[in-house]
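Re: the request from the purification team.
They wanted to know what the chain is likely to look like in 3D before they choose a buffer screen. I agreed to run a prediction and write the result into the notebook, where they can find it.
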Amino acid sequence: MAPRLKWQLLEVAHSPGKRSRHGLVFDQSRGVAVLHGGMRGVGRARPVNDTWELSAQGWSPVPTRGAVPSPRNRAAMVYDPSIQKTVLFGGQSFNGITWAMRGDTWLFDGVRWRRSRQLFARSPAPRCGHCMAYDEANGRIVLFGGVVRSQVSMGDTWVFDGRKWHQIAGVGPPPRRYAGLAWDVNLGGCVLYGGCVDDFGEYPLNDCWLFQDNRWQFLPHASGAMYRDDQGICFHHGIGRLVMLPDINNVAGVHALTEAGWEAVEVNGSIPERQCSPAIYDHELGGLLLYGGEVGHDAEQFNDTWLLVAEPE
């Protein structure tokens, strides 16, 4: 029987406020979702650098100690269980006059942010709009693509072992920004889907790739079905499949990856169409967690918390 899902709007105390292009992870060691940074405001929107956690008591700000990452949006953030820390890389910051790409790496242990020091030549170039996922088979974080200072989309691949970055050579997906990347338990690798070549969505992509054992493999059976740009993607442990959400330009609904390719999933309930809202699986709540997002550049943002749960068979 095909799986069925249901959207639930969570009535939680407090809120990180309306935002999009933020980081969101599930900290397995502490059993809480962690949200950081992003963009707040419409029109004269600006990046922020606050940190929040979601527990049974609701959202609460984290009184971090010491230095914190500078305000930024479109950074990539992943929880690394091998070092029991959240890892953040890159993003885009604003100094009041100009925008700048960031190339710094930060680690968060639940109390303190700490910058990882490493020679620039041995880490990814400053960028935003890149994607990252945790490689469970090899205990490291995988980074792909993004856009650099020259506004060129990248097609490079890097891995972070908890201490240092290492670049992976070889042929991979074409350059892109705003793609989705997530670990797939069934395939035993990190699956990349879609993204866009430019910053305006005029050249979206619909190809699917698997990163496994230090090399990329094109997945023809999972490519060509639908364009996705700035979409949420995450393995849903409740149904045992990788799930991809629609982006702002696609109303085809939620899809799950099967041996035959992407298949539409029956979903009860609905949420407003949105983009720039990362999706994670919250093991404490038992569903795919979604917070905030936007309906377009310099357009409406949200401050709601949603959970996509499996329906009983």
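For the purification team: Residues 177 and 281 are 23 Å apart (CA to CA).
Please add any questions underneath this entry.
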